[in-house]
Amino acid sequence: DGDLWLYHFRGSMWKYQIDMNIWTWMAGDTISSGPSYGIKEVADSSNAPGFRYIYSTWKDLLDNFWFFGGLKTSGYSNELWMFTPTTNLWTGWVGTHHLIP
Predict the structure, then answer these.
(1) What is the DSSP string of 39-77?
(2) Per-residue pLDDT tens for 23-79?
(3) What is the DSSP secondary structure assignment for residue 101, as one 8-state letter?
(4) Which residue has the higher pLDDT, 24 or 8?
(5) CB 29, CB 10: distance < 8 Å
(6) Is there a contact between 93 and 80 (Cβ–Cβ < 8 Å)?
(7) Which residue has the higher pLDDT, 42 or 95?
(8) 3-state helix vs strand vs coil in the chain, percent to 5
(9) N or C end of the chain: smaller count of CB under 10 Å?
(10) Across the strands, what pairs with 67?
(11) What are 23-37's pLDDT values in tens digits?
């Protein structure tokens, strides 16, 4: 729909509506905190990747956003998360959940 999406390193997902010049908080933490995994591969409003930076993102053909890895306070991560904009829900740790020393 032409909007921009931003994952803030402190754990929140934001949407920028270009035509209205408005930022809107969509999901995730409003304060810096750790991840909330929930049930593996199940979307839930309490799921969130949490604080991290230096990560990779992409969008699939169904307009879901994917999020891989990142540097957390406890080390590097190889976690894979999915965010669904139509529901504003994170699917927790779709891939391997483990820290690389």
Answers:
(1) STT-EETT-B--S-BS-EEEE-TTS-EEEEEEEETTEEE
(2) 999 987 766 667 888 888 899 988 888 888 878 889 999 999 998 888 877 778 888
(3) -
(4) 24
(5) yes
(6) yes
(7) 42
(8) 0, 50, 50
(9) C
(10) 57, 81
(11) 999 987 766 667 888
- Read off the tokens for 2: 């032409």
Q: How far, in Å, are 45, 57, 77, 80, 81 from residue 96 at the CA level?
A: 21, 16, 9, 7, 10
Closest C-alpha to 67, from 101, 39, 32, 91: 91
- DSSP letter assigned to residue 29: -
- Tokens describing residue 67: 């999020």
pTM of the model: 0.79
